[in-house]
Amino acid sequence: TLNYSGYTGIQNISNKIDVLSTDEYINFINAISDELGETAPFDPAAIASIGKGTNWQNEIYRSAKITEQNISVSGGLGGSNIYASLNYFDQEGIVKNTGIKKYIGRINFNSQLSDKTALGFNINTSFIDDSNTFDGLSVNLEAGAIYGSLLMDPTEQIYNADGSFSVSPNLNINNPLSIIEGITTKSEANRTLANFFITHDILEGLQAKLNFGSDRQNQRRDVYNSTLTQRGAPAGGIADVTQFERSSYLGEFTLDYSKELNENHRINLLGGITYQKFNSKLLSANISGFPTDNVLTNALALGDTNNDNLFSLKEENTLLSYLARVNYTLLDKFLITGSIRADGSSRFGLNNKYGYFPSFAFGYKLTEEAFVPEVFSELKLRASWGQTGNQEIGNYASQLTFGSGGLVVLYGSTEPKRIPNSDLKWETTTQINLGLDFGLLNNRITGTIDYFKKNTTDLLFNLPLPSASGYSSILSNIGEVENSGIEFMVNSVNVSTPDFSWNTSLNLSSTRNNVLDLGSVDQIETGNVEFVGETSIVKVGSPIASYYGYEVDGIQQSGDVNPGFPNFVDQNGDGVINSDDRTIIGNPSPDFIYGINNSFQYKNFGLNFFIQGTEGGDLLNINLIESLYPANLRRNRLSDMALDRWTPSNTDAKWPSQSDSSSYPGGKVNTMVLQDASFLRLKNVTINYQVPVENSSIFSALSVYVTGQNLLTFTNYIGFDPEANSFGRSNIKIDYSSYPLASTILLGLTAKF
Question: Is 45 in a helix, a strand, or coil?
């Protein structure tokens, strides 16, 4: 069988952040300058020379192409089967000069050598070429084009008269186009995963399996900051090269025994041992002072060797696990499962290498009972209890480690960097699940309801230490966090006729989080952002990574101490606004998450659309902080904040005056810049047509489709995406010049030959 699938399409930024236009910016800066008693920087002559100015977001974004092509072949002969596939993916970034290409190949093979012996192997290899953006949590001259496009003065032109990129004399921000053209960021990664297995039936019902696997990765990242940028120019160009290698090897042996004791009793036993070893190497080099930008990172020796920095490391860790499981089925309606794992990790202290994690599960098919009404075509009760471990702490975290110290005479030195903890052990999560699977009216309506509660103990956390210790923290097992929630899913066949069908799926989930214990401390501040400080807190009795800052209760009016200033709440009533008045001001976790999918089929035409959303949950918008507390007057602002600010003639404004925000008594993390991140999004719409192939000698199946992704989003959040998190998948959530969400239109085809 030969299969092909592919699509091509176009992407555009879903929405841009509304910042001040050139005219709005001029009026705003002049007004603020006048309120501060300073000379307005834009007189009529200056305004006339500016013209339309520059919309920096329009300059850095583009319509970007995307395509993916897949071809696969599968077949068999005798007792052997093979599957092979090739995949090509090419996506331009919606930010100019960015994009990613992927090439992936896969082969799966298995063969029944005899009645008792079978073997097989799987190989997956890929190459990824990634040209990404120079953005993140950096600020000022080290930040990227997205950051610059929001803050750059719109009265500035892109180019000087001689064709060079303009540089604002009033801002320590790069011209966004100089970042796009002047910084080259490229990453190339090769990865190959392979495993080989052989099974042998030792006795009737007893099978042995031996499995070997490997995962090898090699990645190189090159960044060259050229003399087109304000940071690269005085340094003569800056080159960064990082070479990273990672490999892992797996050996696994299991015995699986199945036995039907009689028509009412069946049992399955499994036992085994697994061993994994992980190795990683890293080499990085940084050097500046090049005679030309033309060679990029390809000739580091041309740089000034008096300004080079080298770093290297080699790490390894191992996992050794023993496992056992038993499944017992009684009367085809009771299923009982028990299992246990003993996991040993080299990452933990000498006293606690191993963790032991049991689990139990029970299933009861209620539809086998006479007392269940016939309206139920399926009804099953599930319950389970189990423990799992977490060892994601990096290597050598339990050991005394050393790093570079200060110069001693003419040579370098080493000094301790980490306090050892020989008692460091596995973080353990204990979870209870209760579930119900149901089907009604011959499964016209089906669904599941699940309740879960999990408590994570012995949290792996960096416990702060007194500065007198010489260390900032020690990795320890402390405290307990509880998560609980409910998940609901229902599927319905609304209409089912030979020519027309309509199916609906609905899912809803709600999760609550609470810190129960932190050992010897009551709270830990975390989530540091440059120029903002700590944004979040882990505190007993509150959700993990809650936002921690100042509460603002309106804006002071005429007759108050500081008209136009935010009214920061004096939480402790001491008459002074300071860090003691910080409190928990928000929760990053939504109240609930939902999704609705509808599928329609009329003869050969199909329509599918998926809507997703969240309700509740806050997001700290650092772009609002940049706008409310600018580093200097001439940075651009979010238009909502600037155009609806307090003035003596606009006292019912949403935002404070901003005339002298550096004098506001409270901190930058406050309820003014914390926003509701609720949203409703049309995530996916697909229209497809099944081409009739009954009389075709080539195709056994053929369809064409058009898909739209992220077409509409309804939200009050001021930003690119209310789901954004500049900290990645961390519990700590902030939005800071995050990569924008793209809307996509795709035209695709699938065929089977």
Answer: helix
| Alpha carbon distance 554, 567 (integer Å) | 6
Does position 408 have pLDDT exceeding 80, yes or no?
no
Least Cα distance to 460 among 345, 342, 339, 590 occurs for 345
DSSP structure string for 394-463? -TTTTS-EEEE---BTTB--EEEEE---TT---EEEEEEEEEEEEEETTTTEEEEEEEEEEEEEEEEEEE
CA angle at residue 665 from 660 to 668, to 5 degrees? 80
DSSP 635: S
> What is the arithmetic mean of pLDDT over 635-645?
95
Average pLDDT over residues 271-298: 96
**Rounded CA gap, 619 and 182, in Å?**
32
pLDDT at position 363 over 70: yes
Which is nearest to 612 in space by CA: 590, 579, 631, 630? 590
pLDDT in tens, 674-706: 999 999 999 999 999 999 998 888 899 999 999
Residues in the chain, overall count = 753
**Per-residue pLDDT at 406:** 66
Q: Which residue has the tokens 């369809």?
A: 703
pTM: 0.90
Q: Quick one: pLDDT band at residue 405, thresholds 50, 70, 90?
A: confident
β-partners of residue 64 are 11
Report the C-alpha gap between 568 and 661 in whole angstroms.
13
Bridge partners (DSSP) listed for residue 601: 501, 606
The C-alpha atoms of residue 387 and residue 196 are separated, in whole angstroms, by: 30
Q: Closest Cα partner for 144 from 222, 246, 229, 233?
A: 229
CA distances from 550 to 231, 658, 659 (A): 35, 17, 20
User: How wide is the angle at C-alpha 669 spanned by C-alphas 586 and 741, nearest 5°?
Assistant: 75
DSSP 63: -
Q: Give tens-digit pLDDT for 37-58.
A: 999 999 999 999 998 999 999 9
Please state, in angstroms and rounded to a whole number, the distance separating the CA atoms of residues 134 and 145: 7
**d(C-alpha 130, C-alpha 219), whole Å:** 11
> What's the chain's average pLDDT?
93
| Among 329, 314, 313, CA closest to 279 | 314
- In whole angstroms, how far apart are CA 250 and each of 214, 277, 426, 444? 6, 7, 21, 45
Q: What are phi and psi of 230, to 5 degrees?
A: -70, -25
C-alpha 671/C-alpha 677 separation (Å) is 13
Instruction: Report CA-CA distances (Å) from 558 to 36, 353, 429, 520, 564.
Output: 17, 66, 55, 47, 8
Using CA atoms, how far residue 575 sits from 35, 558, 561, 569, 660, in Å, is: 28, 20, 13, 10, 22
Q: How far apart are CA 413 and CA 418, in angstroms?
A: 16
What per-residue string of b and e applies to 288-302 under the rule 16 or more CB within 10 Å gives b? bbbeebebbbeebee
Phi and psi at residue 316, to the nearest 5°: -150, 155
DSSP result, 237-272: -EEEEEEEEEEEEEEEEEEEEEEEEETTEEEEEEEE
Quick: pLDDT tens for 466-518: 777 777 778 889 899 999 999 999 999 999 999 999 999 999 999 999 999 99
Please identify which residue in the block is written with the tokens 């497809």: 688
Average pLDDT over residues 629-658: 94
On whether the CB atoms of residues 629 and 619 are closer than 8 A, the answer is no
How would you list the strands of the sheet with 546-549, edge to edge?
523-529, 533-539, 546-549, 583-586
> Using an 8 Å Cβ cutoff, are 579 and 667 in contact?
yes
